[in-house]
Amino acid sequence: LFLDGAGLQQLFHRLTPAGTARQIENNYLVLSSPMSSPFDSEFIDRDPLNIREIVSGSLKRGRLDNPLDLSLGYYITKDHSTALLFIKPAGRSKDMDFVQRLRPELDAAVRAALSESGNPREVSVRLTGGHIFSEEIRQVMRHDIISSTVLSALLIALIIWWAYRVRLLVLAVVACTTFAALAMTLAAAWFLFGSLNIVTSIVAVLLIGMYVDYCILTLKRFGDEMLLRNDRQYALEMAMTKAGSAMVVSALNTSFAFFSIIVTRFDGLHELGIVSGIGVLLCLLCTFFLMNSLLVWISAAGSGNIFSARQPDLGMDRLAAAIERKPRSFVLGSIAVIVLLLAGLANVRFDNDPARLGLRDSGAMAAMKTMTHKLGKSGEPLEVIVRAKSLGELTAAFDRLELRLADWKQAGLIAQADSLSSFLPSPQTQRSVISTMEMLLHKHPVSAERIEAAAAQQMDRYGMVYDRDRLKGYVAALVNATQRSAVIGLEGLEGFADSRVRRFFHRDDLSMVAYLYPRTTGWTPDTIAALQRSVAQEGSGWTLVGSPILYDEIKTTIYRGSALAAAMTLSMNLLLIVFFVRKMPYILFGMLPVCLGFLLTPALMGWVQAPFNFINIGTMALIFGIGVDYGVYVMQAYLREDLRSVHNALRRSGKNVVICASTTIAGCGSLVFASFAGIASLGLVLTIGAVCCSLITLVLLPSMLCLWEQRRVK
Question: How far apart are CA 253 and CA 280, in angstroms?
Fold first, then answer.
C-alpha cells in the first residue's frame, strides 16, 4: 500500500518466476562478494525477494522533500554532514534536579564516543532540546542572579556610605535587616511554590534596591534627629511618625503594584508579583521592628555611631534656590523636554518572538537552529487536530485531511507536513493502489506455487541453504498481500510496534494530528488566516493550533492584563495619595511624577530602539509602585514638616529621592546585563522608569509647587 506506480510495476515483475530467479541470482552475487557481511546474509534470509528495496525506492520518490537520507538506516541529512540521535529522557525538562544529573551523563557519553573514534577534529557533537535548554538556563541564571545580587549589594552599600557617611556598623545593620527580609521572602516563595522560576529568581535583586528606600528614610531621619538632640527615643519617634507614614504609603503602593501583575496571566510574572508583593511588606516590617531596634541599640553611645563625617548635600540647596528663583522657566523647560521625549512613542515596538527572550549565546539554541536548517524547517509547526465520534468517522476524516494537506502545499500555504500517512496511507491512496494491483494481476495472475518453485530451483542451483517452510510462508504472505482488496482503517494501527504513531494518532480519545511547516518566509497572518478558514470549513471536530497562534493569543491576553494591572495600580496610588494629602491640588502634584514617568518610559524605550515583549510589558505597572514613592517623599516633607516650603522639602527629601532612585537603579540596572534576554529587558524598563520618575520629582514637581505657592500668595 506504500508503493507508487513504479513500485507496483517492480513488485509485479519481482513476483513472476523470471523476476524471482533474477533476484535470487543477485542474492548469490552479494553473498559471494568479498565485501559481503553478516548483515547481508541476515537481510537476504529474512527477505529473499528484496521487497525492502522496492518499498524504499517508492518512499524516497514519494518524499522528495524529506531532508533525511534513510537508506543507511540512520537519521542522516542528505548532504551526509549531520547525523541526528533522538533521546527521550526519563524525567521532565522542568525538573531541575533531573536535568542537573542528566547533563553530565550526556557529556560523558559524548566524550566516550569521540574518544573511541580517536577524537577527530572534523567531528563535533552538539546537544539541544528542552532538557538542555533547562540546564543552560539553570547554570546561567544561577551565575547571573548571584553576580547581580552581589554587584547590587556592593553598589548600594557604597552609595549609602558615600551619601550619608555612615559607620560600618550601620552598614552591618542595613545588611542584617536586608538579609532577614530576603530570607523570609524566599521562605514564603518556597512555601507557596516550592521553588523559584526564571522570572521570580530575580526577586532578591529587585527587593535589595527597593528595600533600601525604607532603610534610607529611616536612617536619614533617625541620624539627623540624633545629631540635633542626641536623644534616641525622640529620634525614633520622629523616624516612625515623619518618615514612617511615607514609608507605609510607599510600601502599600509598591506591594499592590506587584500583586496587580497577577492579572497578566503569565505564570512567571504571576509568581513574581506574589513573591515580590509579600517581600515588600516584609521589608517594611523588618525596617520598622528590626532596623529601628538595631539603630537604637548601636546609638546608645551617641550619634557618632551613626554618621562618621559631614555629609555631602548633593546640591539640593542650590537646586531648590534655582527653582525658587525661576520656577516658570523650569516648568516650561521640563514641558519642552517631556514633549520631545514623548515623540519616541511613535517608535515603540513589540517583539513577540519567544526565541529572542531566551539566553544570549545559547549553545543549545545554536544547535537547534543548525538542526532545523539542515532539516529544511523554517519555523515552528502548526497542528491540525481532528476529533471524531467513532473510528470509522475518524478514518474518513483522515482521508479528507490528506487531501487538505495536498491542497495547502499546492497553494503554497505550507512547505511540508508530517502526518499519519507516514505509517498508514490514506484510504483514497489505498484504493488507488489496490485498483492498480488488481489490474496488473488481472492481466497476469501471480501464483505462490510458481514463485516458490522458481526461488527454490535457483537457490538449489547455487547451493544456497534455506528453510523451505519459511520460504513457503514468506511467498504466501507476499501473494496474499498483493491480492488484498479491503482498505485498512485506523484500527489497523492498534498494537502497532512503532511508538511514534502516538505522535499522530490517539485511540483513546479518537483524535489525530498533522504538523504543518511554513515556507522559508515563516508564518504570516494572511497564511494563518487562510489555514484557519480552511480548517473551519471541515466542522467543529477540526482545530488549528500551534505556537504561532498561541503566541498571538498570549500577546493579547498579556497586553490586556498589563493594561488592567496598570489601571489597578494607578487607582491604588490615587486612593493612597488622597488618604495621605487629602487636598485635590496636592493629590495632583503627588501623582504627577509617576504618571509622567509611566508615559516617558515607553517613549524612551522607543528612542533607544528597545522593544517590549511578553515579560517586560507586564512590569510597566511596577513603575507606579516604584515611582510614586518619590512624589510621596517630597509631598510628605512639604506638607508634614514644621516649615512648609519647597526649599525645605527639597532639603529634607531631595537627597533621599536621589539615593533611593540610585539604589533602585543599581538593583534593577544590574539585571540589564543578564544573559537571559527577557530578564535583561525587564531590568531596562524598571531602570528607565526609576530615572524618569526621580527626575520629574526633583525638577518639575518642586517647580509646580513653587508656582502654586506664588499663586496662593497673590
Answer: 10
Q: For Cα atoms 616, 622, 627, give the angle at the middle one, nearest 5 degrees.
A: 125
Q: How far is CA 605 from CA 51, 210, 348, 706, in A?
A: 65, 22, 7, 31
In this structure, what C-alpha cell is assigned to residue 358? 531566551
Is residue 166 helix, strand or coil?
strand
Q: Residue 517: what are its φ and ψ, rounded to 5°? A: -115, 140
Classify the C-alpha dihedral 596-598-602-607 as positive or negative. positive
Contact predicate 580/249, CB 8 Å: yes
Contact predicate 631/259, CB 8 Å: no
Q: What are phi and psi of 201, to 5 degrees?
A: -65, -15
Q: What b-and-e string marks burial along 250-276, b requiring 16 or more CB atoms within 10 Å of the CB?
A: bbbbbbbbbbbbbbbebebbbbbbbbb
| One-letter identity of residue 665 | I
Over residues 339-388, the pLDDT tens digits come to 999 999 999 888 766 667 677 778 888 888 888 777 776 677 899 999 99
Candidates 147, 242, 364, 328; CA nearest to 633 is 242
Residue 64 has pLDDT above 60, yes or no: no
By the 8 A CB rule, do 663 and 213 touch? yes
Please, what is the angle between helix 130-164 and helix 168-193, to 10°? 150
Q: Could you tell me the three cell numbers for 545?
A: 493550533
Single-letter code of the amino acid located at 435? S
Query: What's the pLDDT band for 475 if we cut at 50, 70, 90?
Result: very high
Who has greater pLDDT, 650 or 203? 650
Contact 594, 665 (CB under 8 A): no
The cell numbers describing 120, all together, are 577527530
Beta strand segments in 523-669, E? 542-546
Q: Tell me the sheet residues that pair with 506.
A: 511
CA distance 577 to 591: 8
Euclidean distance between CA atoms 201 and 137, whole angstroms = 11
pLDDT at 630 over 80: yes
Q: Which helix (H) or strand (E) holds 581?
A: helix 547-581
Task: Please answer whether residues 364 and 106 qualify as being in contact, where contact means their C-beta atoms are separated by less than 8 angstroms.
Answer: no
3-state secondary structure at position 387: strand
Per the CB < 8 A criterion, the answer to whether 447 and 504 are in contact is no
Cβ atoms of residues 666 and 687 within 8 Å: no
The pTM (predicted TM-score) of the whole model is 0.69
DSSP 8-state assignment for residue 612 = B
Alpha-carbon distance 304 to 298, whole Å? 10
First to last CA, the chain: 98
Q: In this structure, are residues 394 and 388 in contact, taking their beta carbons and an 8 Å threshold?
A: yes
Q: Centre a 10 Å sphere on the Cβ of residue 311 and count the other Cβ atoms it contains.
A: 17
Given a contact cutoff of 8 angstroms between Cβ atoms, the answer to whether 589 and 329 are in contact is no
Closest CA to 134 of 108, 87, 102: 102
Residues 247, 272 contacting (CB under 8 angstroms): no
| Max Cα–Cα distance, the chain, nearest Å | 125
- pLDDT of res. 311: 66
Structural contact between residues 650 and 702, judged by C-beta atoms closer than 8 angstroms? yes
Q: Three-class SS of residue 299?
A: coil
Helix, coil or strand: residue 466 = coil
Question: If we measure between CA atoms, which residue out of 153, 157, 211 comes closest to residue 185?
Answer: 211
Three cell numbers written together for 440: 496488473
